[in-house]
Amino acid sequence: MGILSWIVVGLIAGWLAGTLMRGRGFGIIGDIIVGILGALIGGFLAQAVFKIPDAVNGFNPISIVVAVIGAVILIAIVRLLPGRSPV
What is the pTM for the complete model shown? Predict the structure, then answer.
C-alpha cells in the first residue's frame, strides 16, 4: 500500500473512530495519525486472531473497517491510561 493510500485510509478511519468514540474527529493530522496506528493495530489483530493475511491492503472498504476497529481499540486503551486527559 502506497503512502498516499495510508494517508487517505488513515484520515477516513481516524475520523470515523473519533466520531464513534468522541462525537467528532481529532483534526486532520490527528485523524491521520489515529487512523494509521489503528490500521497497524487492526491489521495485526486480524492476522493474529482471525488468520486473515494482509487485512489492510489498499484503499478498499475492508481496509477501512479494519483500520476503524483498530483505531477504536487505540482510543479506548489511551482513555484507560491513568493521568491522561480524556481523548
Answer: 0.85
